[in-house]
Amino acid sequence: MKELLATIKQNKCIAEGIWAITLTLPESVGKIRGGQFANLSVGDGSFPLKRPLGICSADGDDITLCYQLKGDGTHLLLQRKAGEKLSVLLPLGNGFDLGDAKNIAVVGGGVGIFPLAAVVREYAGKRNFYSYIGFRGRQYACLENVFAEGGRLTVATDDGSMGVKGNAVQAFLADYKNTDADLIISCGPPVMLRALKSALKERGITTKCLVSLEERMGCGIGACLVCACKKTDGHNARVCKDGPVFDIDEVEL
Amino acid sequence: MANLSVKICGVGFYNPVIAASGTFGFGREYNELYDISLVGGVSTKGLTLEPRPGNPVPRIAEGKSVILNAVGLQNPGVEEFIKNDLEWLRTKTKVVANVAGRTLEDYQGICARLDGLVDMIELNISCPNVRAGGMALGIKPENVEEVTRLCKAQLKSTPLIVKLSPNVESIAVNAQAAQRGGADCISLINTLTGMVIDIERRRPVIANNTGGVSGAGIMPIALRMVYEAAHAVSIPVIGMGGITCGRDAIAFMMAGARAVQVGTANFTDSYAIPRIVREMDEWLNSHKIEDVNEIVDTLKLN
Predict the structure, then answer these.
(1) Do the interacting molecules here have an ipTM over 0.90?
(2) Which of B52, B60, B197, B200 is the mutation pick for testing A, counting most A CBs within 10 A?
(3) Whether residue A120 is found in the same domain as residue A199
(4) pTM of structure
C-alpha cells in the first residue's frame, strides 16, 4: 500500500456516464488482487476526499479504474487529460479470495461489474466463469468482452434493450441449475445484493458467496471508521480495511 | 535543521504536529504507510468506557474545501485500547487519549482509568454527534468548568487538555471556564456543525443529517478562535482546524498555539503530517529561525 503521484495515460468514456481512467504508477505497488480498490484524488484541493474506485485491471505499472459520473468530483475527474498527474492510494482492501473454486458464478450490476472484471481478467483461461452482468439499458453496457473471455456470459438489461430482460440476479437464478458453480462472487447496488442474499436463502443455495460492498469513505485504510457496515454477529466491520469483500452470510445488507 | 521539539505541560513532543482525534485511529493503519514515530503525537480515536457502535452510514460528506463527518464515537472501548494498542503506540510517539462519555460519571471514570497510562488526556466535550453526551457539556461555560473540575480531580499524574467546541457564544469565555476548572491545556477547534444536501433526493447526505465540518475551508475561523482563546488564558493552547501545509501550522503557532493537530489533511494526503513537519522546518530555515518555539504568539495585530 502506497500513495503515489501517478500519470494519466488515458481517460475515456466507455459507456453512457461511465469513464475508464488508466494511470501509470511511478513504482510498483506489488500484487493487486481483483476486488481491491484505489483511492483516487480528483486533482483539485477544494475536494479533500479521494474517490474509492474498484481496480478494473492491473497491467504491470498501469492500472485502470472505472467511474460513474455522479457528483462534482467525478465530473472534475473526466476533465483530467493524459499526461496530468493524480495522487492515488493503493491497493486497498482485501479483494476476492477465490480459494480452490474452479467454476465461479459472477453476478454484477451496474458499476459493480468493475472489480469483478479484474477477477475474470486475471483468471480467464485458468478458472471457468459464468458471468451475469446487468445494466439499466444497452447504452450503459461495457466490458462485456472481458467477461466473455472468462467463460459463458449472460447480459441482462432492465429495459430489455440488450441480452435478456431483467437484472443480473434474475439472470443468474434462471441459469443457476445449468452451472456447476462452487463459488459465487458479486458486486452491485445494495438492493441487488439484498435480492441475491434473500434468493440464495429462499432457494436453499448453499454455495459460498462473496460480495463486495460500497460505502462512502474517509481515509480508505481503516483508521477513521467512516465506512462501517454491520456484521451479522452484531459487530461493525470497516468496508475499506476488513472488506470490501465479505461472505454474504457475514454481513447485513 | 531547526529545533522542532516542544514541551507542553511537561510532556516533550518530538515535533509540534499531532494527529487529530478520529482521523488516525490508534496509529496502526498509518504506520503501514510510514513510520509514525515521525508524528509529534497521536490524539487517539475518541474513547469511551464501553464500546460504541457509532452512527448509521453514510457518515461522511464533502463540501467545498471541507468534509463533514458524523461517525458517532464508534470505538472499541477504553479497555480494548489499553489491552491491544496503548503499549505499541507509546513505543512510537506521544499518546494523547481523547475521551468522551454520556454522563459526567463516564468522563470521571475514563479519566481515572487512563491516569498515568498515557502522556496526556484530551476531553472531547464538543463532539457534536452524540445526542446524549458531548454537545451539552461543551456549550455552556459553567458545564465546561464543571466537567473539567470533576475530571481533573481524577488525575494524579496525567495532564488534562480540554478540547473546545467552536459552536459556542464566546470561545474566550469557554477557554477561561476550562482554565478555571483546572485544565492544564486547551485544544481547539473541534468541528463546526454543518449539513450537506443531496438535492436530487432532497435529503441530507449524512444519515445523522448534520455532521462536524473540518478541512481547509474552516481554517480562518479556527485561527481567529485560537488567537482569541490563547489571549484569554495562561495555559498552553494546541491549535487545529484546516491545516494542510507547514505554513498553515506556522500561522496557528504565531496566533498563540504551542502545538497543532492535523486531521482532515490525512485523508487528502496520507503522508500529510510528515510533509507538514518537513515544510515547517524548511520555512524556519529559510527565515533563519533556529527554534520553532520562537514563533509562538508572535502575531502583531494591525
Answers:
(1) yes
(2) B60
(3) yes
(4) 0.96
